[in-house]
Amino acid sequence: MNDAKHIQETSKKLATKRLMLEIKDLRKSFGENNVLNGFDLELLEGENLVIMGKSGSGKSVMIKCLVGLMEPDSGSIKIMGKNLLGLNQINLDELRTEIGFLFQGSALYDSMTVRENLEFPLRRHKHKFGDNIDTSKLVTEALKNVGLIDAIDLMPAELSGGMKRRIALARTLILKPKIILYDEPTSGLDPITSKEIIELMRNIQRQYKTSSLIITHDVDCARVVSERIILLVDGINYAEGTFDELKNSKDEKVKAFFK
Amino acid sequence: MFKSKKITLFLIEIGELTYFGRRFFKELFSKPFEFKELLRQCYYIGNKSLLLVGVTGFIIGLVITLQTRPTLEEFGAESWMPSMVSISIVREIGPVIIALTFAGRIASGIGAELGSMRVTEQIDAMEVSGTNPFKYLVVTRVLATTLMLPILVILGDTIALYGSYLIENTKGDVSFQLYFNKVFNSLEFGDIIPAIIKTYFFGFAIGLVGCFKGYNCKKGTVGVGIAANSAVVFSSLLLFVIDFIAVFITDIFFEI
Ligand SMILES: Nc1ncnc2c1ncn2[C@@H]1O[C@H](COP(=O)(O)OP(=O)(O)OP(=O)(O)O)[C@@H](O)[C@H]1O
Ligand SMILES: [Mg+2]
Questions:
Q1: Ligand 1 centroid distance, CA of B251 (Å)
Q2: Does the residue B138 lie in any domain?
Q3: pLDDT digits (tens, 9 = 90+) for B138-193
Q4: Is B152 part of any domain?
Q5: pLDDT of residue A9
Q6: How many Å apart are CA B167 and CA B145, to the nearest integer?
Q7: Mean pLDDT on B48-52
């Protein structure tokens, strides 16, 4: 009796979790180079999903297809129920405000100060917060979230790699996206700074209840943040499971990731 | 075999540039307009090349006058100096040399800037944050070079004529008034207008090629260097082609 009720409740909980992101049979090749060969993925609301894969396995290509920076050869991409590939420019831009993208190399605008960097996404999307919103308030709030309020008037060239990553994260957060895509958030950073960035990601997750897709080949990062992991090998989702499940896997290719 | 491959690559490049130019016009006339950024670019590009253009113009004036003077002196025709020098400067030498220095400074600058923005994914970042990078980066820069080069050429021409006057004044005792009287008596609209019109095309070509090379930059820091370098080479080459066409057309309409 009690059991049945419990099962009913959990299935209800699962059913109410929205599907934020759905990729089906994604294919992409560059000439002879078949990078993605039918990749599938589902990201649920509030979930932290980690994608792991070797360098050059197509992780960045996949994530770029998700925001319309690259066009896949075939396959379907649904973001919060909307079919990405069929959208016109205006609707695409609208949808992009719901998706934060943290680039692999931070991608801060060199010619602008930190403040201008953060204001940039607001140029076209201010209306998301109502017309008379104070931009400087949004900027300071985002900077406070990443603990770098003092850097507001610096140029990107004056920042360290870790600071750049934080500012980039603040710029991603400023539109309050529902989904955040992280492309190797810890690459090129020392272990201590990496830990700080990971901690920051978890705080953001808690505070804003975002769903996150995290690309990484940093095992520590995967262990700490992941609720579920997908391994991208040979252009398909080769294996899927929690960190412990994959770590104890017998498959050679899977094992190679956790050495 | 090797040569034909190079020629093919060159033709492909021309085709891609044309396509890029077509996209420019498409985006130019569609909303939203990045007016503030356009003004900023105009200021930046003009300001950046002001000194260079001034110095180049001044030296052109000095050199041409110094070199032409002995020949005319031989025929006892020094009094023709102002009109001869002014016509050659305004018609051809001023626009072409100033455009070439402008290309060296601005096309490479734009190529390197947009190239590094491409390589470090800043252009992608703009795209996902809702700003059309082609409008924000390319359209503004191409417009800015198109609008600024003619102004710079007029300025450079003026300084060149002043330089020429200085030589005439020291060597031949010609007064300021006499010199410029002669200049304006000999210059006609047929000399000035076509020369100015063609500088708009020069400016357009320089901006377009610089943006084209930078925007389509290949990955890696090597790519940025190549983008900057080939932007200068390609745009300089294009300048001469445009100049030839311009002179050809002027010849038909304004019979020299
Ligand atoms: N614009 C492009 N044109 C041609 N080939 C490309 C392009 N972008 C990526 N590739 C190719 O696609 C493959 C996957 O690249 P991708 O950048 O997605 O790798 P990755 O998994 O993100 O690797 P890393 O961990 O090093 O970032 C590579 O072989 C690369 O050469
Ligand atoms: Mg990558």
A1: 53
A2: yes
A3: 999 999 999 999 999 999 999 999 999 999 999 888 899 999 999 999 988 888 99
A4: yes
A5: 59
A6: 32
A7: 94
Closest residue in chain B to residue A125, using alpha carbons only:
B130
Residue B32: is the preceding peptide bond cis (ω within 30°)?
yes
Could you say which of A93, A103, A123 has the minimum Cβ distance to residue B124?
Answer: A103
Question: What is the residue range of B214's domain?
Answer: 32-254
Domain-embedded: residue B185 = yes
Q: A227 with A244: CB under 8 angstroms?
A: no
**Does ipTM top 0.90?**
no
SS3 call for A44: strand
Q: How many domains does chain B have?
A: 1
Which positions ≥6 away from B7 have C-beta within 8 Å? Answer: none
In degrees, to the nearest 5, what angle opens at C-alpha B25 toward C-alphas B21 and B31? Answer: 140
- Residue A235 near ligand 1, beta carbon < 6 Å: no
B125/A contact by beta carbon, under 8 A: yes
* DSSP letter string, A230-259: EEEETTEEEEEE-HHHHHT---HHHHHHT-
In a domain, B8, yes or no: no
Question: Please, are residues A28 and A61 in contact by the beta-carbon 8 Å criterion?
Answer: yes
Six token digits for residue B190: 């047929």
User: What percent of chain B has a predicted confidence (pLDDT) above 90?
Assistant: 77
Q: DSSP character for A22?
A: E
- The structure tokens listed for B184 are 């304006």
Q: At A42, is the secondary structure helix, strand, or coil?
A: strand
Nearest Cα to B160, choosing from B251, B248, B62?
A: B62
Q: Which residues does B156 contact at the CB level (< 8 Å), separation at least 6?
A: B53, B54, B56, B57, B60, B94, B98
Q: Give chain A's residues under pLDDT 50.
A: 1
Ligand 1, closest atom to CA A57? 21
**A125 close to B (CB below 8 A):** yes
Tell me the per-residue pLDDT of A230-258, one tens digit each, with 9 for 90 and over. Answer: 999 998 888 888 988 888 888 888 888 88
Verify whether the Cβ–Cβ distance B122 to A109 is below 8 Å: yes
Report pLDDT for A1. Answer: 45
| B4-35 pLDDT, tens digit each | 888 998 899 999 999 999 999 999 998 888 99
Residues A111 and B256: their CA atoms lie apart, in Å, by: 48
Q: pLDDT value at position B191?
A: 87
Q: Is A59 in the pocket of ligand 1 (CB under 6 A)?
A: yes
pLDDT tens digits, A138-163: 899 889 988 889 999 999 999 998 89
User: Would the CB of A36 count as within 6 Å of ligand 1?
Assistant: no
Query: What does each C-alpha distance from A82 to A22, A79, A106, A230 come to in angstroms?
Result: 10, 5, 28, 23
Place of tokens 């300021």: B176
Distance from CA of B128 to the nearest CA of A (A): 6
| Of residues A68, A96, A105, nearest to B121 (C-beta) | A105
| Residues on chain B touching A109 (C-beta within 8 angstroms) | 117, 122, 125-126
